[in-house]
Amino acid sequence: QWCAITHSSDYYDFLYQNALGLIDKGLAYVDASTPEEMKNMRGTLQEPGKNSPYRDTPIAKNRDLFERMKAGEFPDGQYVLRAKIDMASPNINMRDPVLYRIRHVPHPRTGNDWCIYPMYDYAHPLCDAIEYITHSLCTLEFQDHRPLYNWFIEHGQVPAKPEQTEFSRLNLSHTVTSKRKLRQLVEEQFVEAWDDPRLPTIRGMRKRGYPPEALRKFSEIVGISRSDSIIDMSILEECVREILNAKSLRYMAVIDPVKVVITNFPEEEILNFVTLNTQDPDAPKRNVHLTKEIYIERSDFMAEPSKDFFRLAPAKEVRLRHNYIIQCNNFELDDKGEVKVIYATADLNTLGKNPEGRKVKGVIHWVSANRNVPLAVTFYDRLFNHENPASLDDFTNYLNPNSKTYGTALAEIAVSDLAMNEVVQFERVGYFKKMTDQEFHRVVDLKSTWEKIKQG
Fold first, then answer.
1. Does the pLDDT value for residue 63 go beyond 80?
2. Exposure winner among 15, 24, 149, 368, fewest CB in 10 A?
């Protein structure tokens, strides 16, 4: 739980008084140079900067001008307040940085109370100090700003002396975490909004169905480092799987169905009471409806099977998940040469036990042909095809056109009882989140298939 939610604007009076203190010490001055003039005087990494002609303005005049800036006497851009440090410093951040600028625009929290606003490098350390922050954690791009952070703490009127320390940015593969790049994706409508489930935003991951425990586990695994590196997305996804595997309820759904007729099965359906999570002995149970006609995944049948294919094939046996063993006796093809119907017989002595005298390796999921719920399914995948799109100027050219695809499924009727936004496992398929009564989207596969896709 947060200690408090605060804003820099809570401390505008404190920041203003500190600026007056710097002026009174001769450590800040009001500058009327144009942005172009200031840029030309700043120097380069190889050449020192040049002092502003306003750098030696008397303290009294600087204070008067700054107070009048606050009073709103001057238009935007006429003056800025700058720190008086060292224009010859090898660290460009120390070359008399701007502390305040004039902006006659309403503030979302303070309204029209202020028309001068502090710059981030000035407000950051002083706000840390007034909140008694001990260590301010920043990403590595702020490393060169640390001397300036320390300068403001040393010369400001502050109740505490925080320290800035840096760590590397968390870079995930096949996505971007830069706010600027994320904003571009949203504003140029490459994604739907800030909560698009393909984005690595908190809102996006929440909508996707990533549990908070998975994000915490992921953070513990990758840790904190000062080395810039790219963490493979599969590590985050594996954390998501681990948490969901332990707590998600199990159901069966068929994505690409083909019909199976069990010829020796009675016309009436058989109910089997089975657990909703084999990982949890205390999990609730639900009814599974087995009928004479069922659907299985098309990929779970092969007319001419290879030696290592242990699912359904002519004259081969397979167990239906939570139910009997069946054997394929025959099948029909449609006009396109695709399997239309499979005919099988069930060994009615195999419910909950192994057959006598033989071993059946394969287990497949299924749904009843007349006791199912049709679903619209959205499949999310990597947003980018490139491992490190953040390193590219034209990163939008590497968006994955298949990062969001659509399909349908047939699910067992028990999914109708699920609460909205609940995440469940469709056995042997993946983890899915319920969005509406008949709409689900995939949170994550049961296992990573991305490496296989990359290798072709």
1. yes
2. 24
